[in-house]
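User: For my dataset I need records formatted as: sequence, then structure tokens, nothing else. Please produce one.
Assistant:
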Amino acid sequence: MIKIENVSYKYKNGNIQVLDNLNFCINDGEIVAIVGKNGSGKSTIGKLIAGITKLKKGNILIDNLDISKSKEYQKIQNKIGIVFQNPENQIIFNNIYDELSFSLKGLEKDQIEKRINIALKQVDMQEQKKQDLYSLSLGQKQRIMLAEVLAKEPKYIILDEPTTMIDSQGKDKIYEIIGNLKKQGYTIICITNLADEILLADRTLILDNGKIACEIKKEELVEKSYLLDKYDIKQPTILKILTELQKNNVTINLKQFSIDELINNLKEMLK
């Protein structure tokens, strides 16, 4: 479990309180979406949890390990991986094997090989193992960046707007991978402003003025969709459809919030 306790953050030489006495938990095995307008501090949360940005006020506990204690740093780093929105800013090597093995220094060669093969399979990129990174599409590069994180065998994965720069086909593949990773037991924090990524989450936390303004559980999405409008978060198309149906006394409860699932439910109702 990740615990965020009384966390506040203000950038150096800045007057704006980016995060203001923030409190929430991320439970093991769930996907949590953190959404908010640009500048709301959602990416700062991810960087604080990952240890990229130094915590100044409050506490962050990763499986009861205190992120502010230097002696716990390496243990925490082994538990967490983060993927940013632009994969090209994260690439160090041209060769895929070199890129993935870079963060596995200290392991035996056969262990490195095993971890890389497993990670590439998890993101469905094993066929590209010997290709140059720069020959891949942007979506494929992002999958390699995710594989690099997975090769470290973390428990928690932070995705900071992972599909913002990717085309629709690439987005769908990333969403499929995220769903599979959840089934494998990973805990995922998805920092996003993209409507469809809200549908992947077990819970959505809406950030406003440095605070968690509200929480929406997946099963509450239709009932509380007005909160997305209230905080200028774009609603997924399927959520709009379900809301309109409900206004007309047609209630459909979906588990995956997919169009196919909606169509199948409507077909059953029309029989």
